[in-house]
Structure formats: C-alpha cells, structure tokens
Amino acid sequence: MKTTPTILSEGSAKNTPKSNPSASQRREKIVAMGFIAPAIIGFIVFYFIPMLRGIQISFTNWDLLTDPQWVGFNNYRTLMTDRTFLSALGTTAIYVMVNITTQTIAGLGIAVLMQRISQSTVVRSLLLVPWLVPNVTIAVITLFILDPNVGLLNHALSYLGVGPISFYGNPDLAIYTVALVNSWRNMGYTALLIFAGMQTIPKMVYEAAEMDGASAWRTMRSITLPLLRPVLVMVVIVSMIGSFQIFDTVAVATKGGPVGSTRVIYFYIYEKAFQQGQMGYAAAMAVVLLIIILFMTLLQLRLTRAAETDLD
C-alpha cells in the first residue's frame, strides 16, 4: 500500500511556528547574564543610585550636620552668577583641550612607531608603567622634578641658559603644566588602544597603497586615520570624560593655585562640599558638570559618526 506524501502549501509553511531556542542557547544566555550581572549591579549601586541622590541633594541647602532644607532651583540660579564657578569651567575647558590634544597626538605617534618599528610585548608593557602609577604619586614626583630650585628639569635647562622656571608656581603656566603631566601619564594607555585599533585594519589595504606608490604620510592620512575613526572617537570621549574629572594632581601639586589659575571644576566642588560645608551647592555643580559631559559626548558621537566604519 502506497502512502501519498503530504505537501504543505506555501501559506501553511509560513504559519508554522518557529522552533524554540535550544537548551544550549538558553544556557549561554544564562551564563552571559551571570558575567554581566556584577557590572550592572555595581553600576546601579555605586553610580546610578548615588547620581539620583546627588540630584536630590542639589535642590537642598545641606551642611552635612543639620537636616537638609529644600530650596528648589536656588542653587542653580546662584551658579549662573558665581564668577568663581564660571572661571573654574573656563580653566577646566583649557585643561581638557590641552590634555586631549597632546595625549591623542602623542598616543597616535607612539602607536604608529609600535606598528612600524617594534611590536614587542615588553615595549607595550613599559608604555603602561606611567598609567599604572597613581596620579597622587605622579604629582609628588613632578613637584620635585619641576621645582625651580632643585628640580632636575630646571637643572638641565640651566645648561641651555634657560630658567629657572616655576612650572607649578607661575599662574600663566600652571594649568598647562598639570595638563601635560597628566597627558604624559596617560599617553601610553592611549597608544595601546590606538595600536589595538590599527590591528583591525586589513594588511591588504596597506599593500595596495604601497603598490600605488603612496607615501607614508599619504597612507596615514587616507587610510589609517579614516579607518581608525571609531577607535579615535572612543579614545577622545574617554579622555574627555577623564579630563573633566581631574582633581588629584591639582589637589596635591597646586591646591587650585596660584591665584586660582588651576582651580578646576572638580576641585571647586570639593572646596564647596567639604571645606565650606555647602553640599547642596556642590551637588548642583556636579549635576551641571554631568549635563555638560553628556552633551559633549553626544555631540562628538553625532559629528564624528562613531557608529559607522569605512571598512565596509
């Protein structure tokens, strides 16, 4: 007896329900969530909840000793006429621009040298040494190196007939000195990030450019930089966020001086919160800083098309 095969029509095939995920896929999702969960919990506990609490405090007048008093938007209105706050924002902007520019350019140059000259693991490890040293330690070390009387750098400059120069004590040089010191500390880490991005560029692209007779500078300008755009944007954004949060080098080396020339916004928040007991006012400044960083980040992502890549 022959059986007639059952032929499903096209419409019935479309209505056939999709098979459920396999047990292995479900296990993979559970394992993935297990790895992600500590980071999510840490973010919520140590960042998100304190951020909400800080926003709440910004609408109060609180000296840490008595109960907070609700003042609404008074703290924010006062900020708009606080010349010290506006000056701190300007000083921070100078620091951010100098730090990001020098750090990115130096990191890019080191990454190119690593790709062309040496890809040794030892060299990469040595580049990370300054980044592993805490900012407080870097500040103390540079206080001695840049000292106008006994500093090693001024001693070397004396042979050139220059100096002595008070790098941390001169109001016109202090903020640039702080920016360059932190740029030196972080440029090795930046170089490794850029170097890792360079490894994702196919070698055949460079081989084709070499066959066409492109110079090293033309290759860098027309191939490396465009294909590195997503990585460079990430590096600039991370550097910008870190630069806005500069505090420890200023606190140790200059304490906001001389004449307030290095009073960055983070140090001013610290002064208001813990030296003058104006926690609500300090929280309002922190909220404004959060909005500025968020706006700058979104603006950079939009202008640089960070989500797109030229490798496609």
Write the layout of secondary structure elements.
Layout: H1 10-14, H2 23-57, E1 60-61, E2 69-70, H3 74-79, H4 83-116, H5 121-127, H6 129-132, H7 135-145, H8 152-158, H9 174-198, H10 203-211, H11 216-227, H12 229-244, H13 248-253, H14 265-275, H15 279-304
Antiparallel strand pairs: 1-2
Helix pairs in contact: 4-9, 4-12, 12-15, 14-15
What does this structure look like?
- By secondary structure, the chain is mainly α.
- It has helices at 10-14, 23-57, 74-79, 83-116, 121-127, 129-132, 135-145, 152-158, 174-198, 203-211, 216-227, 229-244, 248-253, 265-275, 279-304, and strands at residues 60-61, 69-70.
- It is globular and about 70 Å long.
Please provide a brief summary of the model.
The chain is mainly α.
Distance between the termini: 58 Å
Helix content: 55-70%
Largest pleated sheet? 2 strands, antiparallel
**Proportion of β residues?**
under 5%
What's the multimeric state?
single chain
Mean pLDDT: 86
Number of helices: 15
- The number of distinct β-strands equals 2
Global outline:
globular
List the secondary-structure elements in sequence, H or E: HHEEHHHHHHHHHHHHH
- Which stretches of 5+ consecutive residues score pLDDT under 50? 1-14
Widest sheet: strand ordering: 1-2
